[in-house]
Write a structure and sequence with these properties.
By secondary structure, the chain is α+β, with helices and mostly antiparallel strands. It contains 7 helices and 14 strands.
Length: 289
């Protein structure tokens, strides 16, 4: 029996998003509203080719809901590749949350989708369109902008380190980049680091000292601004060749660890970091000694 979703135009509405099923894709339209995650509002809508999907799941959610989720293939979506597993569950753009009473309908669509999937494993190229340039956001120590061909960092006099001021404002043509590293601003030491093709072996240069990195935190570089930015840059880099793997950081100097624990303590005393966050991050830093 043919899959009826090939009729095109079937629609399934959930909380914060509406999925429209096509013969070869799912068009996801994200709602606007106070309760809708800001990342969804920024994305607006996304067309997900079925060739970019390798699985579909349906699970029980919280407080009388069910969750229908697409599982994208590794490397198929620049947004998810840049996020590298750091998105909180509620901000996952591949989840559709529905009332529990619609579980039977959700199971129907899940089965229909599974019958249309033909690809699996890592994708050789991005299959989901990236956010469109120009893009910009304000980090803690700089204003970052991307015009589609180059990334620009303009340092802030209130946040940039002396090392960055000495280096001057930076401009990085996409052709000179081999990859990037995005660390969520929702964790301590969030940042966006550009990896240059001409760079040598990995060093222990900290984000606040690296002219190829902008630092997040204290409300700067929020996910809904910095992640789409990173995805657009990553897509542009990938279009020109393979992306470099992010090297594992080397061990830090004990004096640097002590200084960062002191700074973390100041944030904790100021009420900007919770007891749990303080204890967890302090343990992480001590583990790097």
């Amino acid at each position: 029996m043919p899959h009826t979703m090939s009729r095109m135009g079937d629609v399934l509405a959930g909380f914060h998003a509406v999925w429209e099923f096509e013969s070869d894709s799912v068009l996801i339209r994200y709602e606007r509203g106070i309760r809708t995650p800001k990342l969804f509002q920024t994305l607006g809508e996304r067309r997900i080719p079925l060739s970019a999907v390798e699985g579909v799941t349906l699970d029980r959610g919280k407080r009388g809901t069910v969750v229908l989720r697409l599982r994208p293939r590794p490397g198929a979506d620049p947004l998810m590749e840049a996020a590298d597993g750091q998105l909180k569950e509620g901000s996952d753009p591949y989840r559709l949350v529905l009332p529990a009473e619609r579980e039977t309908l959700a199971e129907y669509y899940a089965d229909e989708l599974r019958g249309l999937l033909t690809e699996s494993g890592p994708a050789e190229r991005h299959l989901v369109a990236p956010p469109e340039a120009p893009l910009h956001f304000k980090a803690y120590d700089a204003k970052a902008s991307f015009d589609g061909t180059s990334v620009h960092f303009r340092w802030s006099w209130t946040g940039a380190s002396s090392a960055k001021w000495k280096a001057g404002d930076q401009s990085f043509p996409v052709t000179d980049l081999s990859g990037l590293e995005w660390r969520s601003p929702e964790v301590f030491e969030g940042h966006l680091r550009l990896i240059r093709r001409s760079a040598g072996p990995a060093t222990s240069v900290q984000p606040d000292q690296d002219p190829a990195t902008v630092v997040f935190g204290l409300g700067y570089g929020p996910v809904h601004e910095s992640l789409p930015f990173a995805a657009a840059v990553l897509a542009a880099v990938r279009a020109r060749g393979p992306v470099a793997a992010v090297p594992a950081p080397s061990r830090r100097d004990p004096a640097d660890i002590a200084e960062r624990i002191r700074h973390l303590g100041e944030l904790h005393q100021a009420g900007l970091v919770t007891d749990e966050e303080f204890a967890g991050k302090k343990a992480e830093l001590l583990a790097e000694l």
